Amino acid sequence: MDELFDGYQAQPSTYDEMFDGAQVRPGYLGVRRQMERLSSDEVRLRADYLSHTYLDQGVTFDIGGEERPFPLDIVPRLIEAETWAHVESGVAQRVRALEAFLADIYGEGQAFLDGVIPRRVVTSSPHYLRVASGIQPPAGVRVHVAGIDLIRGADGEFRVLEDNVRIPSGVSYVMTNRRAMSAALPEVFAHHRIRPVSQYPAKLLAALRACAPSGVADPVVVVLSPGAYNPAYFEHALLARLMGTRLVEGRDLMAQRGSVMVRTTDGPRPVHVIYRRVDDDFLDPVHFRRDSVLGVPGLLNAARGGNVTIANAVGNGVADDKLVYTYLPDLIRYYLEEDPILPNVDTWRLEDPSHREEVLDRLDELVVKPVNGAGGKGIVIGPRATKPELDVLRQKLIDDPRGWIAQPVVQLSTVPTLIGNRMAPRHVDLRPFAVNSGDKVWVLPGGLTRVALPEGELIVNSSQGGGSKDTWILASDGNREPVEAQPATGGHALHPAGGARSSRGGGAHAVTAQGQAQSTAVDLQSNEGSAPC
Amino acid sequence: MLSRIAEALFWIGRYIERIECTARILDVYLQLLVEDPVIDQETTCRSILAAMGVQHEGEADQATVLRLLLHDRSSPHSIAYAVEAARENARRSREVVSAEVWEAINTTYNSVISGRLARSRPADAFRLSLERANMVSALADNTQSHDDGWQFIVLGRHIERVDMTSRLILTRTYATGSASTWQITLRACGAAHAFTRTYRAIESPRAAVEFLLLDRLFPRSVAYSLGEVARCLEELDPRQRRIGFGGDAARIIGQARARMDYLSLTELLADLPAEMGVLQQVCADASNAVAKRYFEGAVAPEWLGGAL
Lengths: 533, 308
Prior knowledge:
By secondary structure, chain A is of the alpha+beta class. Chain A is built from 16 helices and 25 strands.
């Protein structure tokens, strides 16, 4: 019989994380051995379990008003302990640098004076908000949660593709993927020592509470969602549920005399930290979009007054602007006096005339991205675009060079993925999540692996037909988390059977020792003589 | 408790109870259509539709009843509609309802939108609805704290139950009037067993109506449910006052309880349809009063006074 991974062909000039040519990389040996013990029908059955359990639980995202389950592939993605240690420190470094950068540009602007980054790059970003300058966030934290998108090129090295420090989403799938996978593949799961992801809500809540306005002894945290029709509503509800906080919409909050209150059946109650999943533009109609009904009028003034913490802070978008991204390696050296641990993907700034020249010349071999795009929107992949498409793009680049960057076509690494009944290579990226509590940047050991399900597709966003994989970070001896086991003795025995019970016993399986003990108890009972009714 | 969440929970309670009661009614009456050789199909179907408050022109046969009350998602009286509405409310309050309650509602919804209610044999569809509704109620009772949120679920459940029981008693008056029709009403209320245990197998319409309206121990009787409604309202607004009750809803329910308690059975029976109409009005009024006090008035009046 064919084995599950027989005939698997990694693509040329891409890094396959499981196979090195025909050889399985050492980390994946266990996965291969354990999965091939299952028949291919069995694997299919387990994969079907994954999709229907997500429907039952309502683990979905909305596309145009329709709820769809988020596809989860049956093959996990493994990252070994040393590799992860590298990624972890690189992500934390990046967050520290972004934090310093935001504090600087909304404060003194020292980096401009020292010539590290031109002032106009920052001020021309639509996400640079003047109203945010001068706000001193509690504990000095603006990036409470960050999602740093990483990819692995042909050499297998992790590189940063983009930073997300506004409202990065996807962490709920990290947690639900883990639960679903441990139920779907218990044998494979038990064979590995995988670092847990379930502590995320507690870490997030602790960080949010640590960043509460000063002088509040027991801060109240709420999750602010745009509502049930937001694509990420599932995640907002899950986080609120797991943190034990209220999930509110803009209309549930009101800003009054510089404080923010939540309307309850017992009247208004104060709120100290708002973990908001609403974009800056919609947050406060007083300062931003007048027509927004998702926000809270007066919220920003309350934050300026130091009475409420908005997490992530307003105005963070300038830090994940893709043009600012190109300056990040310099900014890391400037603020932290360290060398960047994770390199950027090579990027051309179209603003720079010599760069622009080169890009326009090689348009058919590059990837061109809008600097403020998200969700894979507006990206043009040169080698796949038609001539008229490229001509339109060329004009756009000449008209608005500030709006675009260009990168070489990076072949994302691949991981085997169950397509039909066979394994096939599919491109993946990785979004690790970092939580900053002010004194420490903590990186969730895992992160969201997104997988592009159409063959050869390089854009992994869920809105573009992407799925995900459970990401297993293998534990080294250094980070073994202690497990407390219940002592095997000392518990009280279950109370002996009470009530009426057939004294004839329940057939073959009643002949166990326990069965006999129970029927003794029943005999004692029936001796007392309960009258038949 | 957010006003918005309280409202969602209240309606989860109502819709889940509506699913159960509708399934019981359909189960019993459709069985009757099969079993009884002399029954007038058209009249019986009309009486079911009328009791459930469905405005229906044209022919009324079994298929119409099943469509309007069971599987047509666009008919506001159908089980499918109630499942969808319960699910939408649970989705809006997902961080408050327990994961198990949510999953039970969501899996029911998934099978409803896949057309299972229309596809299955009617008896199986009723059983599915009944079991699912009971499962959701039990999970709500056993996996959620009995805090204000839970009180809203229970409040909705019992207001709906009073309303549905009063409608069920009405179907009796539409039906042909053979001696056994009270047995059918009892079965439709899930009360046949409890009634027989209490009154033994006597055939007395008087005893049956007494049981369904006034029994204090049977959990689907009007008196029992009104008692639960009053208890929930008291829990939600426990302030003791020297005069009167906490709110309009408590007053409305209190009046109805007093009426049940102190009218003699003969007086109740004298114009049963009118009495049932009064009960349905009580449910509507109490529901509005609760909405006004807890759902719309997001800001409680006493606070306005304090701040200005």
